[in-house]
Amino acid sequence: MAHECDDCGESFETLTHLRLHDCGDVQSDTFSTSTDSGRSKSDSSPSQKRNKEVAELDNLLDRFSDGDVDALHYAVVEFEAALSTAVEEDSSGDTFRDVFWPYYERVSNELDDATRVHGWPFLADVIDAHEPTEKAEFPLVTPTIANAVGRYLIRTRITDGVEAIPVKALEYLNTVAVNAPESDDVAREEVHAYGWGIGHPNHSVVDQLHARTTEDIFSVSPTVEHAFYADQYAAVDLLEQLVRDESINGTLPRVTRDDMPYRRYLLDCVYGLKTDSHWPGMPRYYDWYDELDYAFELDETVEQRIRDLVEEMGFDADLSNDWTFRDLGI
């Protein structure tokens, strides 16, 4: 459905693009963001520009807290602008971190709060405006958006079932995993909740994880861990499939021992399945197991299948006779 601007008549595919477009002479006085064409060109100092962007980000987040939903769309744009300026200002990354970490949790929380109230369309709108494949540069706000998507995905799976998860949510997290720069550890970590989509009738999480295991082992393994909490029977099927696949032949270097096969590393995903004291750490700032009063108990047949898999592959050779799942941790 197209959305048309009442002032200039231009049409946009999403509400976010409509809200954020520069409407020529008719520029809204409600918001003044770093993307506004009226910003003074004299603000040439990156530090001055960043300070203004951060101040505007605070202002917009405060407006959202006061009930102005549109302000949050602009806040995400302003966050992106402030991060971009920080990168230009300081190649060491210190300035970027000074901007990113103080706002990462707050913006993620606000996106989650807005989605709870206004539903999936709100978050889908934000995704459309910051698509990780739409521009040449990977959006710097991606971890924040992926965090909110991960929360929504987990909550939806537990409360309404896998069929209720929008395909777009799964496609987004998988796209982030595929396109995130190798240096963007935070974005790569925020996609782990993708595992909660296992068994979706219209999106094969299994196929997508299998396709990127060799290139993305550090993201796939914790994603499989999440999958166990979503559907342990489907997850153990996936784990067996991956561990037995001889085409997954990468290795991890170790200083004092032989290199570790990727297929052995994958078994790290079962580390916490037999204890109540360990839960997946992503999405950040979100204890889903507490919020949703989630209980998990590993089925005995699933446990035995994992044990049989370890023995079948010979990965028990350096374990004690009474090894536990914690001994499989890396």
- Number of beta strands: 4
Tell me, rounded to a whole number, the average pLDDT: 86
Label the structural class: mainly alpha
Query: How would the global form be characterised?
Result: globular
Integer-rounded radius of gyration: 22 Å
**Portion of residues within helices:** 40-55%
| Main β-sheet, spatial strand arrangement | 1-2
Helix and strand element order: EEHHHHHHHHHHHEEHHH
What is the strand content? under 5%
Protein name: C2H2-type domain-containing protein
Biased composition (Low complexity): 32-48
Domain C2H2-type: 3-21
InterPro entries: DUF8137, Znf_C2H2_type
Core attributes:
330 residues; mainly alpha; two-stranded antiparallel sheet; two-stranded antiparallel ribbon; 4 strands; globular
Explain this structure to me?
The protein has 330 residues and is mainly alpha-helical. The chain contains 14 helices and four strands. The strands form two sheets. It has a two-stranded antiparallel ribbon. It has a two-stranded antiparallel ribbon with strand order 3-4. The chain is globular.
Task: Offer a quick outline of the entry.
With 330 residues, the chain is mainly alpha-helical.
Provide the fold topology.
Elements: E1 3-4, E2 11-12, H1 15-20, H2 46-65, H3 70-89, H4 94-118, H5 120-129, H6 142-160, H7 167-179, H8 185-189, H9 205-212, H10 217-230, H11 232-243, E3 251-252, E4 260-261, H12 262-265, H13 288-291, H14 300-312
Antiparallel strand pairs: 1-2, 3-4
